[in-house]
Each structure stands twice: as C-alpha cells, then as structure tokens.
Amino acid sequence: MTAGNPLADARWRRRNRWIDRLPWGCDLAALYERAYMPDDKLLVFIDEATKTFGDKLALNGISFEIPAGQICGLLGPNGAGKTTLFRLLMGILKATSGVLQVAGLDAFEDRVATKRLIGFLPDEPVFYSYLSARELLELSAGMHGLDIDSTMEWAEALARRLRLADDLDNYAEDFSRGMKKKLGLLLAMLHGPRLLVLDEPTNGLDVESTHLFYELIQEAAGSGTTILFSTHLMDHVTRLCSHAVIINDGAVIAQGPLAELQERYGEASLESLFLKLTARPQQA
Ligand SMILES: Nc1ncnc2c1ncn2[C@@H]1O[C@H](COP(=O)(O)OP(=O)(O)OP(=O)(O)O)[C@@H](O)[C@H]1O
C-alpha cells in the first residue's frame, strides 16, 4: 500500500472500489488507464467530498478526477451542488468530509498555495467599489508577484479582444453583468493558472462575447491549462469539452468522455442523456 501519503491512499481506495464495481462489458483498458494514471498527471482529485449546511446535505460523497490538460464540463440541475463544489475547491468552504486536492495540495488546508494554481471565475463576480477595472488588474498582478507593466500589456490586449478595453478606467462595480464576467475572466487568467475553474462563465454574455470567451478558453487549454467549468448549456459542453461530470442532488450520477457517456446510456445527444439522468418527479 502507500502509507503516509493521503493522496496515494485515497487513490488506492478508489482503485479498489472501481474493481468491485466493474460492470459487464465496460471498457477495461480505459478504466485501467485511468486507475493507474501517474499522480503527476492528475491535477484535480476529489474523493467522497461531502458538504452539509446545517441539516442540508449539499454534496453527498462526490468523487472524480481531472488529469492535466483536460476540458471538463460540470453539469447538474439547479441546486445540484456545482457552486458548492467550486467553493470547496477554492478553499472558500471547508468540506465536511472527504478529500479535495489540486496538484496534490489540499484545497482548504493549503488554500493560499492552491489559489496560485487556480484561476476562478465565480458566477457573480464582485469587485471593490472604489477601484477601476485597470486598478483591479494591477492590484491582482501585484498580489501574484507579476511584473505590472508586462502583465497590463497582456491584459489590455485581451481586453481589446473582449471589447472591454474602452472601459478599463471605469469602476468595475458599475459594469453590466457581461462586462463583469469579462473582467472576471481576465482576473482569473492573469497569473497563467494551471487550472481554470469557471462557474457558468457565459451567463449574461451576448453571442459575440460568448464566442470570444470560448475562443480564449480553448486557447488557454491549447497551451496546457486544465479547465473545469459549469454550464446549463449542453451545446456549449459538446463544443468545448472532451469530458463531463454530471451531478444531481449532490452526487455524481455519470462521468466520462462525452461520446462514451452517450453510448453507455444509448442517447443521441448530451441533452437527452442529461434529461434522462436528472428527471425528477412532479411536485404536488
Ligand atoms: N451557504 C449555504 N447555506 C445553506 N444552503 C446552501 C448554502 N450554499 C448552498 N446551499 C444549498 O446547497 C445546494 C447546492 O447549491 P449550489 O449553489 O451548490 O447549487 P448549483 O448546482 O450551483 O445550482 P445552480 O445551477 O442553481 O447555480 C442547494 O440546495 C443550496 O440551497
């Protein structure tokens, strides 16, 4: 076994659980490759993560892994637990139980170090009311120990692509929802993170901006950034992601490569698969 290393121990337990649960006809080669993926290729490791708020069980033993370089869509109906999971990964909340690690670091205990590896775009970005967008970018560059001039040159070029450059000297608090998302993405990408965590990134964006957003995300992925993002838009997942994790009522109900998921459940589209797996009884 792997005594003393919590990541290795947790992965060992997962491997054994997988072997117990192997369904007939499953792709053994793919499972084997995943189970024995070297730890240095594993960027996100989540094992049996549980979160309660008082009596409310928001996450109920979530487990999945994301290897470096993957674009993974996190899907789930309203209230499934997506934002809670992101807040645990960012070390904003502490898990009630379970393991959440980014590049081997504990998401809560090592949250300062972890934040250097992650760029996070919340669903509703909130900014200091007394700083302009430019000042926020400069402050963030300073906090990450980056060279301010060259970082701002990079940020301005990106802001021009996102049609935000003319607003950089305005107060971010006065920005529209879409403009706040754009600034949030710039701030998330500023330090060249290894992992981008995006909570409904295109919520509130117009069609052109959505297109530009995804172009930037794909470019980031192309240069090796791992992406985990949530959305309710299935066609966006199909367009962008190689893999998806579907959660419902705080638990993972399906995960894997998109094509394999559809094939496994005999569904022609991700949307029909999602609807099939997350169907709920009518409320009285
Ligand atoms: N601070 C909190 N206190 C109490 N309950 C909470 C808290 N945060 C989240 N919850 C509950 O946990 C569950 C999961 O919420 P969460 O925001 O993670 O869902 P979500 O998947 O992001 O939903 P949506 O798609 O609507 O954004 C919900 O039932 C929510 O009410």
UniProtKB/TrEMBL annotation:
GO terms for molecular function: ATP binding; ATP hydrolysis activity. SMART domains: AAA. Gene3D superfamilies: P-loop containing nucleotide triphosphate hydrolases (3.40.50.300). Residues 44-274 form the ABC transporter domain. Keywords: ATP-binding, Nucleotide-binding, Transport. The keyword ATP-binding applies. The keyword Protease does not apply. This is ABC transporter ATP-binding protein.
